[in-house]
Amino acid sequence: MKGIILLLLITSLFISCSSNKADETTVAWQAIEKLPNALSAAYAGVADGELIVAGGCNFPGVPAHEGGTKSFYDNIYSLKNGAWQRLPAVLPAASAYGVAISSGEGLHIIGGTADGKQSLTQNLILTKGEMKTLPAMPFGLDNTGGAMLGNDIYIVGGLSDGTPTNRALRYDTRAQQWSEIEPYPGEPRVQPVVIAQNAAEEKRLYVMGGFNPATKNVMQDGWAYSPRAKQWLPLHEAPVGLNGGFAFGAGVHTILASGGVNKERFTEGLNVLGDSARREYMTHEPAWYRFNDTLYAYNTIINRWCATGVMPAARAGASLVAAHGGWYLIAGETMPGVRSAEVWFGVVDSEQSFGWINWTVIIVYLIAMIGMGVFFMFRAKNSDDFFKAGGRIPWWAVSVSIFATMLSAITFMAIPAKTYATDWRYFLMAVTIFIAAFPVVKYYLPFFRRLNITSAYEYLELRFNKTLRLISSIIFIIFMTARMALVLYLPSLALTAATGIDIYTCILLMSLITIVYSSIGGIEAVVWGDVVQGIILMGGALFTLFFLITHTDGNFLQIAIENEKFHILNFTFDFTSATFWVVIFGGFATQIISYTSDQTVIQRYMTTKSEKQAGKSIITNGILSLISSILFYAIGTALFTYFQSRPETLDIAMPTADSIFPFFIMTQLPVGLAGVLVAAIFAASMSTVSSNINSIATAFTVDLLPYISKSANKLKTARLASVIFGALGCGFALMMATWNVLSLFDWFNTMLGLLTSGLGALFFMGIFFDRIGGRAALIGFVTGGAALLLVTIYTQLNFMLYGLLGMSFITIISLIMSYILPRDDRSKQNLTWRERGDK
């Protein structure tokens, strides 16, 4: 094993002088069929899967600079098979300068003006080729902006019958009702850029740029509206004014913006006096007006802008529609008063390169893991060797194994991603791991060791009944299969982000290798594999933190403090967010559940030579977990400072929030070292998946097999179960790859509370409440679990509290039932704290 680690380190040092080429992600545009008419300020979006352009305006006869009259249109066009076709439906009034928003129901057409003076209150929806009328706005708006958040449409700013406003409306599409929200701060603005995009923990409404006719101010500031907090938050100033521009979302946290007028030229035009001077101003060549054609990227996490490309044309008043896997740029002005009929379609164009050296490092690592499984296969002579390694594993290896198993890819990727996006508010969870270690050693460990059980759920049959043992074992198997899927998905996501290889191929490859070495080698291969992988994981993390801090442009601590990235303590009594009370009490309950009812962990208590050594391994794991948590939270903060100082290095098309760490590894680290760290991500995943496979096989063979076949060979069954449940976890991971989960950290802890709080409650009641018998515990288990499910559906309590609430509900209900039902008279000798044999 030492040779494997040494080989990886030597390889990385040998090639660390060269750097990875950063992935180049841009938007590639191509011209498509022109519109029948040159237009500006049209309503554009998607209805029934087709691109729609409705209304708009132009100067069809006499040019604007000669005093021509602006014409408005009611035509509706659809792009079918690459050609524009006019639909039979028309707008109720020829209009432009409103908002068009695509939804699953159709294309919403809201507001606008029919004459450039009076604002319309219209609220329409185009669906299945028909135009339907919805409840009108409470007041008219034109030259406004809008976007959809969830089931709500927000309309912000603009002109109301010629008067600029900063009022904002919300339309509930389900209730079909309008309401007014808090106006955004600052000056009123017309033609702002408005878009919805993900922030750290919710989707927000972003309002950028615009123009105030009253003060002749072209604005570069911006605001974000938080639906959760119901307040407006300031944004970093845009590099240019976006008056008449457009924006579109890319990836998980990027807003791309372009178009609009040049602030200097536009302001000059506002100050022109007299017809002659106005005519001269409006007859320059288009290039003179310097409409913006630079594509700017704004990242909602680091709150920074950077230039990221060039648009196919400089336009103001153009429409931008996200559809068909890309974006349509439609018409707009080429210069004041002159419209265009051109249409472009753009898609993300990304070049990714992994390199043969990185591949070599990963392949060597994966082959070594399979070799380890083969080596230990010859030492697993019977089921006791397969499940307990004959009790011959030293305590320090067990402590590292527990540490590596509980760490997993969730820690390696999801915690840095969570801290990068937020702060250290969840760090107190790591403290609860250390705190929970002491009651686990004192109150729980003696029962597992002295009863000499293979499956943790054997205790539940001894203490309560067979039914609770079977239910608990089945729930554990379901949860571990789901957890296995998550930690298979995470490194596959990393490799996909790094190389562009299909994520489904990555999941299948990871699953196959892990199933092979864990199913043939048993718990001994798993534990020693964890030791190797834990060393690689921590070594890679330490180097990454050093690299991030030393390569941040500016002072790491200053940037982090200015952005409140070290915020950790919040003593408000708010149980819907990660306050001190939520994280401490919820985190402590979560750790108690994991370390007292999780077969993956408890199985390791059985692999040491003595109870004392098992206790030392638990305490050591608590210390290692605390140290590693500091490391991974610091990495998340350093990722923020690094990318805020270098916003141009971020991938505009990053698909998920949890991709940030692997993206950094593959684009910013030296060649070879990137391979080592991707191997570390694989290590984090494989240590957890292999442990899950082995513990599931143990639970199935020991708890369920006797009820299926009493004559089956346990060792062969365990290996077969490893393969079957490993395959199920792989299948679930393939499903997960199709989901859109904003934070895997949140998702995992939610599932942990929902599925395993009942298991923690059963062990807690079994040891400390002699009075509670099997029937009372079963009733409490079912009804308490149902109560927790209702809490998750009908309240907004933070997910960290689910474990604590589940344990509390089940324990209280079971205790009440123990006074109603006849007392359980079965012997509890050596099964409860009061009846323990060593007091």
TrEMBL record:
**What InterPro entries is this protein classified in?**
Kelch-typ_b-propeller (IPR015915), Kelch_1 (IPR006652), Na/Glc_symporter_sf (IPR038377), Na/solute_symporter (IPR001734), NANM (IPR056734), Sodium:Solute_Symporter_SSF (IPR051163)
Which GO MF term does the entry hold, naming one? symporter activity
Q: Name one Pfam family in it.
A: SSF
Membrane spanning segments where? 356-378, 393-415, 427-447, 468-489, 501-520, 527-549, 578-597, 618-643, 663-684, 720-741, 747-769, 776-794, 800-821
SUPFAM superfamilies noted in UniProt: Kelch motif
One Gene Ontology cellular component annotation held by this UniProt entry: plasma membrane
Annotated localization: Cell membrane
- Asked if the keyword Transmembrane belongs to this entry, the reply reads yes
Which N-terminal residues, if any, form the signal peptide?
A: 1-21
Per the annotation, which location comes first and is thus the protein's main one?
membrane
Membrane topology is: Multi-pass membrane protein
Coiled-coil segments, which residues?
none
PROSITE patterns this protein is in? NA_SOLUT_SYMP_3, PROKAR_LIPOPROTEIN
Arranged from A to Z, the UniProt key words for this protein are: Cell membrane, Ion transport, Membrane, Signal, Sodium, Sodium transport, Transmembrane, Transmembrane helix, Transport
Q: What biological-process terms (Gene Ontology) are attached?
A: sodium ion transport
Instruction: List, alphabetically, the PANTHER family matched.
Output: LD47995P-RELATED, SODIUM-COUPLED MONOCARBOXYLATE TRANSPORTER
Q: Which family does it belong to?
A: Belongs to the sodium:solute symporter (SSF) (TC 2.A.21) family.
**Name assigned to this protein:** Predicted sialic acid transporter
Question: What is the native source organism of this protein?
Answer: Mucinivorans hirudinis
